[in-house]
């Protein structure tokens, strides 16, 4: 921007020097009036040209801003779509993996009601609901099967009984111990 202003000032200075030189070369004062008039018009054009170029650039500025905004908005939308696709794919994989684990455990003689799988990066976590309260032997068999067949570590396996997964709000066991004989919460 500074360079444009300096070059504009330089052009005006050169123009003024040429105007002065031309006025001294003109033989009579009668022609000097015409030369001054013509050079005045040229000076006006020289003064207005940078302002007009700034105005055209100011017209282009919203267009360029709009174009950049649209590009950024498109990138954001593409990123959102990629994240949405990833989430949908991950959710579908979790559901399918849960169903496959459920079938696998049932084929091996382990009675399972439901299996829920969560994928966290490279880590798989599984929650398995059994029909009866699992003893250590049943838990060990389930965890071994999940580790062998599916690569799920024992510490990432949660074994629950069908009663644990089907608690209701009115169930006394879901809200802790009762503080009074017929109340399940501490609110009076």
Automatic annotation (TrEMBL):
Residues 159-188 are annotated as: Disordered. Keywords: Membrane, Transmembrane, Transmembrane helix. It holds the Pfam family Spore_III_AF. The keyword Transmembrane helix applies. Residues 164-179 have a biased composition (Polar residues). InterPro entries: Spore_III_AF (IPR014245). The keyword Membrane applies. The chain crosses the membrane at residues 6-25, 37-55. It comes from the Bacteria. This is Stage III sporulation protein AF. It comes from Blautia segnis. The lineage of its organism: Bacteria, Bacillati, Bacillota, Clostridia, Lachnospirales.
């Amino acid at each position: 921007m500074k360079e444009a202003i300096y070059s504009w000032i330089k052009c005006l200075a050169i123009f003024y020097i040429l105007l002065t030189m031309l006025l001294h070369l003109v033989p009579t004062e009668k022609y000097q009036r015409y030369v001054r008039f013509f050079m005045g018009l040229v000076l006006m054009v020289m003064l207005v040209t940078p302002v007009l170029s700034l105005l055209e650039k100011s017209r282009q500025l919203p267009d360029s801003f709009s174009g950049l905004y649209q590009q950024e908005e498109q990138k954001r939308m593409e990123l959102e779509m990629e994240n949405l696709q990833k989430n949908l794919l991950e959710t579908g994989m979790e559901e399918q993996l849960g169903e496959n684990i459920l079938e696998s455990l049932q084929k091996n003689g382990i009675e399972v009601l439901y299996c829920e799988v969560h994928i966290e990066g490279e880590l798989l976590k599984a929650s398995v609901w059994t029909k009866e309260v699992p003893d250590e032997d049943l838990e060990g068999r389930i965890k071994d099967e999940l580790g062998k067949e599916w690569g799920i570590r024992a510490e990432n396996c949660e074994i629950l009984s069908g009663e644990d997964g089907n608690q209701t709000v009115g169930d006394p066991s879901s809200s802790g111990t009762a503080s009074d004989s017929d109340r399940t919460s501490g609110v009076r």
